[in-house]
Design brief:
With 370 residues, this protein is α/β, with parallel strands linked by helices. It contains 10 helices and 17 strands. The strands form 2 sheets. Strands 1, 10, 11, 12, 13, 14, 15, 16 and 17 form a 9-stranded mixed beta sheet that branches. A hairpin with a 2-residue loop joins strand 16 and strand 17. Helix 4 runs parallel beside helix 5, helix 5 crosses helix 6 and helix 7 packs across helix 8. It is elongated, with a radius of gyration of 22 Å. The two termini are 18 Å apart. The structure holds pyridoxal-5'-phosphate. The site of pyridoxal-5'-phosphate (PLP) has 14 residues, from loops.
Length: 370
């Protein structure tokens, strides 16, 4: 840990130092419970994405409510999860390069590890490393189901790569990665549905080709907070990768339909540090305390205040009424525009309930980008 926590267990909320990443534990627990309840009885498993929270404590809360493991995007993130006691990790991403692959197969000695591929040469390298390490690596073929990011095209190209995995010693073909990332933040439910219907059709076409080639597909993994109910109901997805639902953020709150039923449980607590002129206030949280890639933060409970811009250490707020009393020292609760990259800026979650700090959770995968 490089920084001291901004509070101690028992500290009253008014005394938490700022900027601090604060979790409203009641809202957080309701989000966890809501997700578990929404999937109860469905033939799908939850494998939430740990790229959101980067914290084994949160992963264990998810596992306790039925999750079968977590997803990670990076090998170093997966290492932090396994070190934190998580036994099953899907790298929902391509892992390329000798050094990373060596770490990946090393991790597969300690835990159930699966990885995604979309390239034949990468398959060869993974097989070689797995054999050298004496492990069998589970491999999912990533299919491009509309996100146009990683992934081979559905149908025959995906089936051909799956056959290559299946015939590579050291690897076991485990299924398909089919994440439609572009659909997650589409505002209107009908347009989100269209995007997921197309993804499901692409998965079905690929499953048909796999069957024709005699390959068994155990897992079809995908989905995020914006669409998970659609993948859950599709009849083809077996694992859901939603991540943001635990905390939510200002941008996801603008998505209509069920995702908005999850509550904002994550805040950046900030302090007004300047009110030198009537029409603007400045808080101590700027670009190093908040990610603004998905829009500016929203000031919780204060529609009269607009966070208009961020520089490195400053956040500038416009006041709709310049007569508003807002002195240096006033504290504001900011809802980040995008939770994942905001969390990655902090070492600690400061978890509060009933006006006091109840727990401090280390964000052990913070900065784990390797
Ligand atoms: C591969 C993959 N799966 C799942 C997710 C989780 O999405 P969300 O945080 O929107 O629930 C992401 C997020 O970008 C992702 O890249």
């Amino acid at each position: 840990m490089t920084t001291r926590p901004p509070a101690d267990v028992g500290t009253p909320v008014e005394e938490i130092d700022t900027p601090a990443l604060v979790v409203d534990l009641d809202a957080y627990e309701r989000n966890l419970d809501r997700m578990a309840a929404s999937l109860a009885g469905l033939p799908v498993r939850l494998r939430p994405h740990a790229k959101t929270h980067k914290c084994p404590v949160v992963a264990h809360h998810q596992l306790a409510r039925g999750a079968v493991g977590v997803c990670c995007q990076k090998v170093s993130e997966a290492e932090a999860m396994v070190q934190g006691g998580v036994r099953s990790v899907l790298l929902s991403n391509e892992i390329v390069g000798r050094r990373k692959i060596a770490r990946l197969v090393g991790l597969a000695r300690e835990a159930d590890v699966a990885v995604c591929v979309d390239d034949a040469e990468n398959v060869r390298e993974l097989g070689e490393a797995a054999r050298a390490a004496g492990v069998e690596l589970r491999v999912l073929v990533e299919v491009n189901v509309g996100a146009n990011r990683c992934g081979v095209e559905p149908g025959e190209p995906a089936a051909a790569l799956a056959a290559r995995v299946a015939t590579t010693p050291g690897l076991r073909f485990a299924g398909l990665q089919a994440y439609q990332g572009r659909a997650q933040h589409i505002r209107e439910p009908a347009r989100r549905r269209e995007a997921i219907e197309a993804a499901v059709a692409a998965v079905r076409a690929t499953l048909d080709r796999l069957r024709a080639g005699g390959l068994r597909c155990e897992v079809v993994s995908g989905a995020g907070t914006g669409t998970y109910e659609m993948e859950a109901a599709s009849g083809v997805y077996t694992e859901l990768q939603a991540g943001s639902y635990v905390f939510m953020d200002a941008d996801y709150k603008r998505v209509e339909g069920p995702p908005a039923a999850f509550e904002n449980a994550l805040f950046v607590l900030a302090t007004v540090m300047s009110r030198a002129v009537a029409e603007r206030a400045v808080v101590d949280a700027g670009l190093k305390a908040l990610a603004v890639d998905s829009g500016m933060p929203v000031v919780a409970g204060r529609p009269d205040l607009e966070f208009t811009r961020a520089s490195d250490e400053h956040g500038v707020l416009a006041l709709s009424d310049p007569g508003t009393e807002l002195r240096p020292g006033a504290r504001l609760w900011l809802v980040p525009g995008h939770c994942d990259p905001t969390i990655n800026l902090y070492d600690w979650y400061v978890c509060v309930r009933n006006g006091r700090v109840e727990a401090l959770w280390p964000i052990t995968a913070r900065g784990a980008v390797l």
